[in-house]
Amino acid sequence: xxxxxxxxxxxxxxxxxxxxxxxxxxxxxxxxxxxxxxxxxxxxxxxxxxxxxxxxxxxxxxxxxxxxxxxxxxxxxxxxxxxxxxxxxxxxxxxxxxxxxxxxxxxxxxxxxxxxxxxxxxxxxxxxxxxxxxxxxxxxxxxxxxxxxxxxxxxxxxxxxxxxxxxxxxxxxxxxxxxxxxxxxxxxxxxxxxxxxxxxxxxxxxxxxxxxxxxxxxxxxxxxxxxxxxxxxxxxxxxxxxxxxxxxxxxxxxxxxxxxxxxxxxxxxxxxxxxxxx
Length: 278
Ligand SMILES: NC(=O)C1=CN([C@@H]2O[C@H](COP(=O)(O)OP(=O)(O)OC[C@H]3O[C@@H](n4cnc5c(N)ncnc54)[C@H](OP(=O)(O)O)[C@@H]3O)[C@@H](O)[C@H]2O)C=CC1
Ligand SMILES: CC1=C(/C=C/C(C)=C/C=C/C(C)=C/C=O)C(C)(C)CCC1
What we know:
Elements: H1 2-26, E1 38-42, H2 47-58, E2 62-67, H3 70-81, E3 87-91, H4 97-110, E4 116-119, H5 134-162, E5 165-170, H6 181-203, E6 209-216, H7 238-250, E7 255-258, H8 263-267, H9 269-277
Helix pairs in contact: 2-3, 2-7, 4-5, 5-6
Bound molecules: NADPH dihydro-nicotinamide-adenine-dinucleotide phosphate (NDP) and retinal.
């Protein structure tokens, strides 16, 4: 009986969500003002991280930039400052929990409380399981998944104190269905992290703290160059990916798949529920 009630409630929720989505597709959502907010971006020296930094700067946010690549990270900071926006670069290895907590203490002391956290940094080994050294498999999980926990534990308390903040998880379409083993496992973890964090915030009535999950298809940044990945659909352009993500973030959308085609694999997860209900 309970299963039937659960399923009925889920169908009602799904119908309501679809109706809301259809209506919102025709209405231009109001985009929030983030002028003066302090935004921290991990992997800010990378292709998407740098574009996110520039887009957030254009929206008036002040920037804290984290990356293990000091040269690339500092270059991003220079580009942000050329827009007349404050940027603070920190060299941090996200695979090391302690270095995250130490850098977070420095940011709070030197710059202030972070109100927008963009967990963007990511790596991929992209080899078959048995051909992949354990260290590479471990690094992917540490950077793409474990780091989300440490970053959020470091900055969520201040957001909770003010009931104000936004946590953005740059996951992937490969967090919704699988091909490259290490990367997919880490991105499935990122999707699960986002969903559980969102439920936790909801349960604590912290309606001022928003979350956004970003699930792009392949983006032409070179991250997957040389990796065994076949697909007929051409890769996304980095700037288009970031601009679409920014619209979702500023509209406080809980999730965005880019392009919309990627919602298909996501919706197939409801199929799993059907098997569970049998
Ligand atoms: N490119 C794509 O096709 C897609 C990417 N994504 C996701 O988007 C995000 C950004 O991807 P993209 O810009 O393409 O990747 P890039 O490799 O261009 O950028 C990733 C950045 O993260 C940094 N980084 C890697 N390891 C660490 C670490 N241990 N500590 C701190 N920083 C680290 C990298 O530094 P370094 O260069 O020195 O390693 C790099 O600057 C990732 O999470 C990725 O999974 C999602 C969908 C598609
Ligand atoms: C387009 C498309 C597909 C393939 C998607 C692929 C191959 C995505 C790769 C994404 C990557 C590499 C993301 C990196 O973070 C499917 C699922 C076969 C069918 C639905 C449409």
